[in-house]
Amino acid sequence: KLMHRLDQHPEEKKKALKILYEIAADFSPHVFKAFKTFLDHTLDQLYDGISLKIHDDLDIAALCKDHNVVLVPNHQSHADYIAINYILAKKFDVSLHIAGGINLNIFPIGPLFRKSGCFFIRRTFTKDVLYRLTLEGYLYWLLLNNKPIEFFFEGGRSRTGKLRSPKFGLYQMLLEAHSQINARAKKKLIFVPLSINHENLP
Length: 202
What we know:
It is a single chain. This protein is α/β, with parallel strands linked by helices. Helix content is about 45%, strand content about 10%. Strand 2, helix 6 and strand 3 form a beta-alpha-beta unit. The mean pLDDT is about 85.
């Protein structure tokens, strides 16, 4: 759809590229490894205790080989996306492409997050057709290249700890992007729910 749009409006190509560079992650294995090492030495200092428990039957690395995997965790803290990325890297050597709000793209954390696999999206873009098509095209590229994706279905953090109502925009764009993949290259698209608890539970 983006290609068709640019065929009809070739003058929008520069704008589409500018949007793409605003969105896209710039994943660096070296930066990601250094960030992981940094967390190895600091998490125990920040928290009273950390439990990296994952169900024995869950193998994210194996799941990613045969499927397009999208993780959909609950969202209570800015530590959530760091924790999930850290756990999957430690347990399965898997790095995620994480949808983050454009408000997080600030120095110095913005470049670090982008190098660690975060891609940034605007909070609202319903009236900007070119932005939507470019984002959908980027999601298509991630799925086509079998990059595991993570986004928070609630769209933002829960201040109470209770699940908020889901927002379906990114979900619908993922479905649409996946539907455009050629049948020979297409893998089954699966959504994996995750829960993060911030308290000790009896």
